[in-house]
Design goal:
mainly alpha
């Protein structure tokens, strides 16, 4: 049981690091002029759908390792 707990904590920490890296990369990207109008519209629609799904609670967010681990109980 302790090994499972340690593994889950390690996974949680790795996911948090990946999330931070993605945010850093996204903040440095400059997409202006990269895509045509149709591609921009497709991206905007996908983003809108994703936010709707997040607002509906389709995806979970965890604020701490404990909250993440509690979700497996």
């Amino acid at each position: 049981m302790e090994q499972k707990q340690a593994t889950l904590e390690m996974i949680y920490e790795m996911l948090k690091k990946i999330e931070m890296e993605v945010e850093m990369i996204n903040s440095r990207l400059n997409w202006e002029g990269e895509f045509d109008e149709e591609e921009n519209a497709e991206f905007a629609e996908g983003t809108k759908r994703a936010w709707e799904e997040i607002d509906e609670g389709k995806y979970a967010k965890y604020n701490s390792p404990e909250e993440f681990l509690d979700s497996f109980k």
